[in-house]
Amino acid sequence: MHRRRFIALLGAGLTAAPARRAQQKAMPVIGFLGSATPAANVRLLPSFHQGLGETGFVEGRNVVIEYRWAEDRYDRLPGLAAELVGHKADVIVSTGGITGALAAREASSEIPIVFITGDDPVERGLVTSLARPGGNLTGVSFLTNELTPKRLELILDLAPHAKVICLLVNPKNSAAERVTRAMQDAARTKRVRLHVLEAGTESEIDAAFTTLAQLQTEALVVASDPYFASRRDQLVTLAGRRGVPAIYERREFAAGRWAD
């Protein structure tokens, strides 16, 4: 995601907030809805603040940021989104992928919402079209879920003799079923055997890699998921320990650091 693009969308949301709200409060309020933990976002929040500063917003000086963290429990996102609405946020920033964006949408049809997702926002009903979002939602989509079958193709280019592939998904992610179906279709086309492993906690990730070894997996595709991004070090370490070629949603998994 290009940070400047994201902040521009956020600034537009703040500008579009109803004038009556600005009259009632000393400073506008940004509601920050995160699916992970503050620690998992420690590398990203400074860039978020820097981007706000570049558009003239400084936390505590002329804008208030109300943070809500789901602590990797996606079922908490609807309640946290409702809390932000109750705090009269002027704009809500959702960084919880499609699950967070849907929770924010259900919480308010009036407050501007800026989302980050890996899904197709049109297909999931977040916006009317990419060119003209309509409604109160806009944001950035990496289309990472839509590209999961492409990642199967890429990993097979790197491991052309692989016939047993594992797909790791988080069953708590509302996109998991769609991603699984798309991968099953792609695996049939490529004539490889696909095993689907599910993990939504640290211990479940460990267990999934134990199963992966038992299945004699020759390549691994890790689905796009905010929780998996926060467990990046664990995933990369386990894949390396098992000696299995793996492909992920973002280059930071391979680079070992977050890109700007």
Compose a concise summary of this entry.
The chain is an alpha/beta fold and 260 residues long. It is built from eleven helices and nine strands.
User: Considering the protein shown, what is the CATH homologous superfamily of the largest domain?
Assistant: Response regulator
Question: What's the shape?
Answer: elongated
Helix tally equals 11
- Helix share bin: 40-55%
The whole-angstrom Rg is 19 Å
Polypeptide structure, described:
- With 260 residues, this protein is of the alpha/beta class.
- The chain folds into two domains: 3-141, Rossmann fold, CATH 3.40.50.2300; 148-255, Response regulator (Rossmann fold, 3-Layer(aba) Sandwich), CATH 3.40.50.
- Helices cover 42% and strands 17% of the residues.
- It contains eleven helices and nine strands.
- The chain has helices at residues 3-15, 19-24, 45-54, 77-86, 97-107, 148-158, 176-190, 202-214, 226-230, 232-242, 252-255, and strands spanning 29-34, 64-69, 91-94, 113-117, 137-141, 164-169, 193-198, 219-222, 246-247.
- It has a five-stranded parallel β-sheet, sandwiched between helices.
- Helix 4 (77-86) packs across helix 5 (97-107) and helix 6 packs across helix 7.
- The protein is elongated.
- The model is unreliable at 18-23 (pLDDT under 50).
